[in-house]
Structure formats: C-alpha cells, structure tokens
Amino acid sequence: MKPHALIYLAGSALLLASCSHKTETDESRQAMTVDVTLPIVKDVTLSSTYPGYLTADKAVNVVAQVSGKVMSMNYESGQMVKEGDVLFTIDSSKYRDAVQQAKASLDQAISQRDYAQSHYEAVKKALESEAVSKMEVQQAENALEQAEASISSARAALETANRNLGYCSVKAPISGQASSNAFSVGAYVNGEGSPATMATIYKNNPMTANISIEDERYLELLNSATVDAPRQNVTNTLASGRTQKRDTIDLGNVPLTFSESLPHNYTGFVKYLAPALNRSTGTMDLQVQVDNPYNELRAGMFVEVHLPYGSMENAVLVRDTSIGTNQLGKYLYVVNDSNKVVYTPVTVGDLIDDTLRIVTQGLRPTDRYVTSALLKVREGETVTPREIK
Predict the structure, then answer these.
(1) Which residues contact 260 (CB under 8 A, 6 or more apart)?
(2) CB of 56 within 8 A of CB of 206?
(3) Burial level of 55, CB count in 10 A (0-12/13-18/19+)?
(4) Within 10 A of 43 (CB to CB), how many other CB atoms are there?
(5) Any residues with CB less than 8 A from the CB of 124 and at least 6 apart, and which?
(6) Given 47, 154, 305, 379, which is the most exposed site by the fewest CB atoms within 10 A?
(7) Does the model's pTM come out above 0.90?
(8) What DSSP state is assigned to residue 278?
(9) Which of 25, 70, 285, 311 is nearest to 184 (CA)?
(10) 256-273, pLDDT tens digit by residue?
C-alpha cells in the first residue's frame, strides 16, 4: 500500500475516534441525573429576626450587713436556694455580747422607772398633807418621764442588737440560683460601714429577652396584631397594693433561637414595649418573656427573637440551599418539560422554618427546580430529572 494511503487511513481512524469520544461525552452529559422537586405552596407567617440578650426575672445581691469572720458557707455555687435559706454565717460573738448589754441596760432602765414611779406616787401623797412642795412633785414627775424615755431608748437599742445578731445569719432574699461566693470561709467581711455583696441570686424563671426594633417595624406590628387586652401576666403591683394592667402588642407565641441549639424549643410573648422611640437610634425597646422550666437559659445569653409582622397566602417556597447567587442576583436552575436546564433569575423574600425561602418573582408553582449539584449543571443542557420529596 502506498504511503499516502496509509496516512489517509490513520487520519480517518483518529477522526472517527475523536467523534466517538465526543459522542460518548455528550451522551454522558445528557444522561446526568439531577434531583429536582416542586416548590411548596402554603400560607406562611412573615417575621423579622432581632438579636438580643437574656436577663433574669430578678437578680438580687446577698449582702452582709455586719462585720466579722465568715464562719460557714451553706450552699454550693450554682445551687438552687429558697428564700430564707441561711447561705453564710458570720462570727456573732460581739453581737451576742451587744444583745446582753442591751438587755442589761433595759433592765436597769425599767428598775429606774419603777423607782421613779414609786417616788412620784409618794410625793403626790405627801403634797396632800403639805409635807412637800409642788416643786418637789414636779421634779419627781420629770424624773418619771425621763425614766420612761430611757426604757424606750433601751428597747430600741435591744431591737438593734437583736437585728444585728440576726444579720450574722446571711439569708437568701429570694428563691433562685445562687452564684459563687465572693468571701470564702475564714475571710473577714466588713458589712457595717457599707453592705458587702457576698453572692447574687438569679431568679431564672421566667426570663426576659431584650431587643430593639425599628420604628417602621413597630408600625407593621401594629397593622398585623391587636392591642392586647389587660392580662394577668403583665400586671404590676403598686406600692399602694393596687394592681395596674399594662397594654402591649399581642403577637401570640414568639419563637426564640440561640447561637447553639438547645435540647428544648422556646417561645415567649411580648410583655413590654417602650412608650417612646430613641430619637438617636430610631429604635424602640421591646421585651419578650419566656418560661425556663428546664433551667437551660441563663442571664446574658445571646438570643434571636423572630417577631411576626404579617402573613402571605399561597407563598411559593423553595429550599434555601438550592438558590444560587451571582453578580446579577439570585437564581434557580429549572428543568423544563424537555428536560433541559433553564437558568431562572428569581426574587426572594423571608426565610421560613430555617430551611425554606420565599420566592416572590420568577418561579411558578409547577416549575421543577434543581435541588443539588448546582455547580455541575449548565444552562441549556439536557438532564435526567429525578424527582424527590
């Protein structure tokens, strides 16, 4: 065979191999299987997420009001304590002595009063026979009054001494969870000059989530909620003993989430809305009360409050992870009736249930969209769709 014929045959073979490889590649691309699904269509509640922090319902310091050496600590740090529990004891020797001295002073004052009383009665009787002068009677009466005043003073001193002796047993002012102690056993605490904080008790049930909302969001809340009628759990007790109701926005159960997932889910209700906006920030303080039955929540924890501000009927929802982003905005890959991939720009809205995103424009309820492998599919290519739930 001639050399040029051999060259021709070799070239033809290479061309056929190349075409065969290209065909196999195209077929493999056409045969690629992708997961698709239809959008979820349902009514949803729209909400905005606000960061905030938790505070305890109450946080009260345990203080020493007397001075002396700490003799005992009767709780473990972090322990739940009850109101009235003795948490610390302080050396009471000098306060017991003070009580004894006050009792002795009172007994002496009573004895002096009894003598002054007898003397006054005697000089009054002697005055009838003019054995004494009116001046002496007046002096006896003044002595009696001074003796009565000394008794009152001695009784007050005894009450103070007994009260100080009682302060040697430092008790829990409220029920709650006690912090670690600021004074260890054997340390000297000086509480007479100024009360010394020895620990803090936190009443952690219920808790309060504190956030700030924008003024425009406040108007949306008003439009989507009703002003709540007076309710028991937002009742103030005044110093006079009367109760005072507070009106607030009733948004129902408000979901709360935390930086890390907790064993239980939490919701609360709006218990306080500031009466005025902060003009420098354009925001308004808002508080959400949340029950803490499992004692998982702590004061100072970061919290996200999801405030509902409206609703949407027949919202089109897609998986948030299926939405791509480029310089033009958000997009989805839709598989049409010919099983071809169609690049579809979309306009999106709120995130629902942490995984679903509302699509407000660009997608129909009947459009199948690609749920995964977004980097592998290409505009216009033919795929084998595999529908998933």
Answers:
(1) none
(2) no
(3) middle
(4) 9
(5) 137, 140
(6) 379
(7) no
(8) B
(9) 70
(10) 999 888 899 998 988 888
